[in-house]
Structure formats: structure tokens, C-alpha cells
Amino acid sequence: MLRWVLPEYIQDALPAEAAKLEDLRRRLLDAFRLNGYQLVSPPLLEYLESLLTGAGQDLNLKTLKLVDQLSGRTMGVRADITPQVARIDAHLLNRKGVARLCYCGSVAHAVPSSLTATREPLQLGAELYGHAGIEADAEVIRLLAESLQLAGVGTSRIDLGHVGLFKALAHKAGLIPEREETLFDCLQAKDLPGLRDLLGEAADDVRRALLLLPNLYGGPEVLAKAREVLPADVEIQTALDDLEELATRLTGLPISFDLADLRGYHYHSGVVFAAYGGHSPVALALGGRYDSVGRAFGRGRPATGFSLDLRELAAQVPDPATPGAILAAESHEPGFAEAVSALRRSGESVMIELPGHEGTWREAGCDRRMVLRGGAWQVEPLQGD
């Protein structure tokens, strides 16, 4: 095997892509900061029981595992940063009021989430702790839309759903946990034949509601339809009320509904959402409410937030038209060092020419040259290679 061959679904970021990723990271984290979100940086490795506590149980199959040679305990490479941030809020910060936190870092997946996905996403996200109201959900969704707009991708659609609908109906169906998992998978795949087989012994109203759930997607009319066809259960009506209020608060955004889109229902506890934009056929960002996660770390707090893969987002962003570097041959002429420093302070990249260079300066990223004309240092277009 060639030594430089990387594992499947793992790739390098070459200069142009790396520059785009870094530019996006800085701009989005700056936007989060201006909205009051403070940056945290959890470790890449943790003991496995910490990574898989609470919300992390959904990540078990995605987590790469290894033995810590110092303690002998099993460690994991994080597959999602969100549970780590929940641990920080619950166990380390220990604030009584609202905490707004954000992050950006690599995660590793044992298996890719799709045929085109990387196994090393660059996860960026924002989380809001300490507020149980719809106001918090609306804030993070607006921040998500602002982020996609700032990236230059825009938001074509934001699908809203609610895990409470599924949990209430699954409870009414009286399914054992294993069959509830299967029910969830069928709903996600919109597998109606599978649903019919699974719900053969369920009460008629519950069976009918669950079979209708995959078709409840679209505009505001979906909520009105749901109120007609779903059981008049308090939990169900409360979930629909939450979605209706949230949509009202998000006026101006392209809001739609998908009541069977229930990614990570063990993880989430209320409103869930998926944002689409650019030319991507899949959601660019996912999020939702996960109020019960912090309890596993000693302090349960209301929580809501979103995350995205910066690599996937960057693929939707046009390459920036940035100027190349300025080539400067080493010189002892007066003012040379000062001229180079002034250019760099102004944001220009200046590359000092080294002797014996065998390649072309254009492939090294230079498109201009610094020359001495009439006793003054000037920048001119680079001629030739």
C-alpha cells in the first residue's frame, strides 16, 4: 500500500480549500460572538462513557474507540461536539442563567453518514442553554439563517418538526423499545408498507395517525391538517402549538414543515429543524431542542442549538477572488524591509524569493512583484512565470 494513501472518506484540504474553510470559520464565529455566543474548545478525545452519556448514545456506532495507554480505560474520538458542550455547560460553567456557547472543530466518524460524506467533518455550531421557551428556538434558527446568508449560500428552506409528536404516538401504539426503533426508521424512510406491517395491532386512530405522518409536509396548511387527522392528545396539540408559534416568530424566513423528519429522536426533546441552501440536495445544518442531555452530567438544563459541517458548507460557496502574493527578491536597498512590513500590515501576502527556486512563482501563489523604481519600492504585475 502506498504510504500517502489516506483512509476511505478522509481527505486533505489543499491551500485553496483550506483558505476558504478558515475564512468561513472566522466570519461565522465572529458573527456568533456578535450575537453573544462565547467560544469553547472541547478536547478531541474523552473517556468513552462521557462521550456516550445522554445524547451521545445515538453516536455509539459512529465513535472511533481506542485504549488509553496511561489509564487502561477505553477512550473515544468525538463524533459530535454538542454533547461535549452540554457537559461544559452542566458541569464546568455551572451558570444559573442563560449561557450561549459556540464551537468549531474536527470530529471523526467510524462510518460515513452517506456515500458522499467525509468521515472527518469540521463541525461548527451554536448552543443556547437555560431557556425553555420558543424564544430560544427562534433565536438559534435566526442565527442559523444569518450564518448561511453570511457564507453566501442563503437559505432556500427550513423544515420544522417536533419529536413530541412521534413520542406521543409511539407511546399510544404501545410498542416495546425495539419496535419503536423500527417505527422510527420506517418514518424516516417514509416506508408506508413497513409501517402497516409494524402497526397491525395498534389502535385504529393511532395506526391511522402514524400512517399519515409521512405525508404531513409542506407549508402552513400542514399544521391545520395535522390538527384534523392526529388524535386530540394534549402532548400532540402542545407540539403543534409550539410549531405554529415558532413559525409566527420566524416571519420572513422560508419556513416549511415535515412532521416525520425526526433525526436523532433519542437526542432531541422538542422542536427539530433542518436548513437547506445553495445547490445541496441534503440539509446543510441540523438542530433542535435537547432539554434532557445535561442531566446525565449532573444538571439538566433547557437546551437548543444547531450545527453544520463546514466542509459541506464550503463546497456550496464560490471560490473567493482573492489576490495572490507579492514576490520580493531579498534586497539590502534602503527602505526594503520597511516596504515589506508596510505591505504585510495592510493585509498583503509578501513572499521573499529564495535562491535556487525550481518551480514557477505563479504556482507558488504569486501574481505580483515588488520592484525598485526611481528610488521607491512599487508593486507591479508579475511577468511570465
Secondary structure layout:
Layout: H1 15-34, E1 38-39, E2 45-47, H2 48-51, E3 64-67, E4 74-77, H3 82-93, E5 99-106, E6 122-129, H4 134-151, E7 157-162, H5 163-173, H6 177-188, H7 192-198, H8 204-212, E8 217-218, H9 221-229, H10 234-249, E9 255-258, E10 271-276, E11 285-289, E12 303-309, H11 310-315, E13 325-329, H12 336-345, E14 350-353, E15 366-373, E16 376-381
Parallel strand pairs: 1-5, 7-9, 13-14, 13-15
Antiparallel strand pairs: 2-4, 3-4, 5-6, 6-12, 7-10, 8-9, 10-11, 11-12, 15-16
Number of strands: 16
CATH architecture of the largest domain: 2-Layer Sandwich
| CATH class division of the largest domain | Alpha Beta
* Helix-strand topology string: HEEHEEHEEHEHHHHEHHEEEEHEHEEE
Helix content: 25-40%
- The CATH topology of the largest domain is BirA Bifunctional Protein, domain 2
CATH homology group of the largest domain: Bira Bifunctional Protein, Domain 2
Low-confidence stretches: none
Individual helix count: 12
**Count of spatially separate domains:** 3
Computed CA radius of gyration, to the nearest angstrom: 26 Å
Sheet-strand content, in percent, reads 15-25%
Query: What's the rounded overall pLDDT mean?
Result: 90
Shape label: elongated
Question: Can you tell me about this structure?
Answer:
By secondary structure, the chain is of the alpha+beta class. It contains twelve helices and 16 strands. The strands form three sheets. A nine-stranded mixed sheet has the order 1-5-6-12-11-10-7-9-8, sandwiched between helices. Strands 14-13-15-16 form a four-stranded mixed sheet, covered by helices on one side. It starts with 14 loop residues before the first helix and ends with a strand.
